[in-house]
Fold this sequence. Notes:
Elements (H helix, E strand, L loop, with lengths): L1 H27 L7 E10 L24 H19 L3 E8 L1 E4 L2 E4 L4 E8 L16 E6 L9 H4 L9 H6 L6 H15 L7 E6 L5 H10 L4 E5 L12 H6 L5 E6 L4 H11 L3 E8 L3 E6 L4 E7 H5 L26 H10 L7 H4 L10 E3 L2 E2 L4 E2 L4 E4 L7 E7 L2 H4 L3 H16 L11 E7 L7 H20 L2 E8 L3 E6 L2 E6 L3 E10 L16 E6 L11 H4 L14 H13 L4 E4 L4 H12 L11 H5 L4 E6 L3 H7 L1
Helix pairs in contact: 1-2, 2-5, 5-8, 13-14
InterPro entries: Class_I_gatase-like, FGAR-AT_PurM_N-like, PurM-like_C_dom, PurM-like_C_sf, PurM-like_N_sf
Protein name: Phosphoribosylformylglycinamidine synthase
Pfam families: AIRS_C (PF02769), FGAR-AT_PurM_N-like (PF22689), GATase_5 (PF13507)
Amino acid sequence: MILMVKSILRFLVEKSFIKKAESLRKKILKRVLRQVLVVKFVMKVQQAVVVNQKQPWEENYGKPSRMASPLQIMIDGPLGGAAFNNEFGRPALNGYFRTFEQNVNGEVKGFHKPIMIAGGYGNIRPDHVEKDAIQPGDLLIVLGGPAMLIGLGGGAASSVDSGKLGENLDFASVQRENPEMERRCQEVIDACWRMEDFNPIVSVHDVGAGGVSNAMPELVNDHELGATLDLRKIPSLEPGMSPMEIWSNEAQERYVLAIKPESLELFESICARERCPFAVLGEATEARQLTVNDPLFENKAVDMPMQVMLGGTPRMSRTYETIQRKGDEFDASKVDLKDAIFRVLKNPTVASKSFLITIGDRSITGMVSRDQMVGRWQVPVADAAVTTTSLQGYTGEAMAMGERPPVALLNPAASARLAVAESITNIMCANIEQISDIKLSANWMAAAGQKGEDQALFEGVKAIGMEMCPALGIAIPVGKDSLSMRTTWNDEGEDKSVTSPMSGVITAFAPVLDVRKTLTPELKNEDSVLVRIDLSKGQFRLGGSILAQVYKAIGSVTPDVDNFDEFKAFFALVQDWNNRGRVDLDDFEGLVACGGFSYGDVLGAGGGWANLHHLFQVQTTGHVSAVILQKYLKHVL
């Protein structure tokens, strides 16, 4: 059973890498994909109780027997993601790791249903942004691995509260990875787009949730066409599968695409060179009818109008009853400073993430300018990932992340704003011309339907989608959601449940003018000074902080982004000081930020901190580490 769970974990993580990469392909394709440059890897789990090393804030509320333990997820999940990355050939340069499980007002909140996010970015030529139009008679092809009885219903299973489906169905919905096949597909697609005007691919679509049953209809529906297909032409590794299983399985490393009949010979030669399987399933039709013939049973497995399948999908409408969120009284003045420091530094959210980083390749492609490791001691304190656009020149791209789910238990809107702020203060270490060059990806995880959770999701999305990001001039063109973040089970006759906090995970992307000007959190000179720029203007708010968490509290007043104009000015100021070092304060405020500077080199740091609130508050603030001229100090202070 343990081996099975470990295998499932690995498959889940690798599935998330594959599906995220395919999501990227779908959004940046005309007929082809530009090389994927970098990926991010994120994990959220419940409290990671280590045998004989239980921490004071950790409680063992239990878990369903079907689920892996947080420690297993911590160990096996990253190994699965790293294995796929290493075998495919792309660097993992960014991410975060958080643990959380706490009783809040009599209800257990935590990540029994873990969050694993994987994705990345690439670059694309301007003339490849738009896909070509598919015409009636164009050949419809499936490229990549064979169909297998795996991942059946995976898209649906991921959208159901854990525990509501049978255990066997949960396992059946897990996909399997094949990085070698993904690499072969990548080489075929790369070879095609490099042919420019002679590119044989007209349009392409990734195969994800729903398998070919979803990808092929979407491919032709985008061009207001139908299709006639042969079910038995789909390559299959399991001859006993039913028509439904052949049509709907979610075997990974597959694409559907359209090519002109006259391009078939050229495309076939490219696939043969790369040893990448493909099959012609049928052709596009002018009539908007999807027909899937099954010559084995001499019938039509599918025969329905495209408008019925993909047209007129009703918009979801949700209502909620407004609630007032209550915290608790957390008096930081009663906390022993030494004990607080040790507790915070031991929390996995704060502690070193080397175990997640050193297992993966961080330099492959030859275009990595900034990975996680900083300074002569190679300490993982970098704020952002930076890569070059090509092997020549100094332009590039940057990626950084931000999230604040514990804050959402008290103030969902503030949690979302802080996530955006963290992603921007992280990415501002790169040489970015202006804040509007940044684009965001927003991933939303919530337990829809649970008391207060629909309200939390609405408040979070509204806070950044309708207020903060428009004010900053930043777009959110992409994102995903999972609205089933609740786990239920029965423990010896007792019904138990754990609900995850509303989690808005923000990833910021931006073009970089000069990768050589990327700033790192290092104290490189003994005469450096640390300047604290406090956008909160002296408000010491500890609600939802790590300090409160390690004392089994949540607090009451949360940090927030109070002034959008000042935040934009802060970004401009840091870019103006782009030849000097900086680090944002993250969850851990002054104490750990200073530590981050010191770890990057061999220098220490000292400061006149007034009290414990200064050390651990979670505000939208920043440090600028540099030898700063007195006139700048006067300007700031």
